[in-house]
């Protein structure tokens, strides 16, 4: 019988993730305990391959989609749990909320789901597709291989009113961020580790340009002293090249934006965190100590990422008879 692992690296990742998941069962909800590795092994054995192949294919023509997929899963899991509710189109849905206006990667999820519906109709949930796609995006960017338990079901409710109270805004204090993470069963360490997602991806200028400005004479003026002066000037110049700050984008990581590494934390030590929430991690003892550790030890970051990402991926999951398996990810059945 052929091995389900294509490499020793994948086998090691699976065994590590299995041990991690078993330990997490003591901490997470009983619903998450009903997830399992290789959940689709008999019902749709090619499910994870199809998702991975779709992500790779999409990123070959648009590399930016990898960071978008990672951000998309955050916005799903933090609002009502990992139930694919962010994917639903329509007035009054999570997707319609202004806080989600800049999200991307929806087409990749829908493409993977369309293929799955051909080979395994009504079997694989959009919630699982989204989590797997984000996992695969990190791997494609050079990040760790993470074995993810599956078996999530799709939510049947998607309401815009649930978005703002549950997502992190770019001007939040550390206390506010910790409170939201804690409400999801995530720790201070998880906050710092998952913030490492900002080592990839890009952001619109209007999400950070309040940190600097030009005075009446057109000269640069730094507003947020926690931001490196020269870096702020570079950002101002990039954002000033367009009349619309909602469309101009800047890489989250000015150094290695296409690689999933620990450069984000090195940037924070150099006061080059793009968002106010990034810089805030250096201003609180609870988070700064973790930033310093991760900046100096990439292996530690990647190991902790595996743990924190898995914890996030099981927030509020629907299993068993809860929810449904959507035919299309953009609409409930």
Structure description:
With 333 residues, the chain is mainly alpha-helical. It folds into two domains: 44-160, Orthogonal Bundle (Peroxidase, domain 1); 172-311, Peroxidase, domain 2. Helix content is 43%, strand content 4%. The chain contains twelve helices and four strands. The protein has helices at residues 8-24, 47-61, 65-77, 106-119, 126-140, 174-183, 188-195, 229-240, 263-269, 276-280, 285-296, 298-313, and strands spanning 202-204, 212-214, 220-222, 249-251. A hairpin with a 5-residue loop joins strand 2 and strand 3 (220-222). The radius of gyration is 20 Å and the shape is globular. The relative contact order is 0.17. One of its GO terms (cellular component) is plant-type cell wall. It comes from Brassica campestris (Field mustard). The record marks 71 as: Transition state stabilizer. Its EC number is 1.11.1.7.
Write the layout of secondary structure elements.
Blueprint: H1 8-24, H2 47-61, H3 65-77, H4 106-119, H5 126-140, H6 174-183, H7 188-195, E1 202-204, E2 212-214, E3 220-222, H8 229-240, E4 249-251, H9 263-269, H10 276-280, H11 285-296, H12 298-313
Antiparallel strand pairs: 1-4, 2-3
Helix pairs in contact: 1-12, 2-4, 2-5, 3-5, 4-5, 7-11, 7-12, 9-11, 11-12
């Amino acid at each position: 019988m052929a091995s389900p692992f294509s490499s020793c690296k994948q086998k090691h990742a699976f065994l590590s993730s299995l041990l991690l998941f078993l330990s997490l069962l003591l901490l997470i909800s009983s619903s998450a305990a009903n997830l399992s590795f290789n959940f689709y092994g008999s019902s749709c054995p090619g499910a994870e391959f199809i998702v991975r192949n779709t992500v790779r294919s999409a990123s070959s023509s648009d590399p930016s989609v990898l960071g978008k997929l990672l951000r998309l899963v955050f916005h799903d899991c933090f609002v009502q749990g990992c139930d694919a509710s962010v994917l639903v189109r329509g007035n009054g849905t999570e997707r319609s909320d202004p806080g989600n206006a800049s999200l991307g990667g929806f087409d990749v999820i829908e493409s993977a789901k369309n293929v799955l519906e051909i080979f395994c109709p009504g079997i694989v949930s959009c919630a699982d597709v989204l989590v797997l796609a984000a996992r695969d995006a990190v791997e494609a960017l050079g990040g760790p291989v993470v074995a993810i338990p599956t078996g999530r079901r799709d939510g049947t409710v998607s309401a815009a009113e649930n978005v703002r109270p549950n997502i992190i805004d770019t001007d939040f204090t550390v206390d506010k961020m910790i409170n939201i993470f804690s409400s999801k069963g995530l720790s201070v360490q998880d906050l710092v580790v998952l913030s490492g997602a900002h080592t990839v991806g890009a952001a619109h200028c209007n999400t950070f340009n309040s940190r600097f400005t030009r005075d009446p004479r057109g000269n640069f003026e730094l507003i947020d002293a926690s931001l490196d002066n020269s870096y702020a000037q570079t950002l101002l110049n990039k954002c000033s090249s367009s009349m619309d700050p909602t469309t101009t984008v800047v890489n989250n990581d000015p150094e290695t934006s296409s690689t999933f590494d620990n450069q984000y934390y090195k940037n924070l030590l150099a006061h080059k965190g793009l968002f106010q929430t990034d810089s805030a991690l250096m201003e609180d003892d609870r988070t700064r100590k973790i930033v310093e550790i991760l900046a100096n030890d990439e292996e530690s970051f990647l190991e902790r990422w595996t743990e924190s990402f898995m914890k996030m991926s099981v927030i509020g999951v629907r299993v068993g008879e809860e929810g449904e398996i959507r035919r299309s990810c953009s609409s409930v059945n």
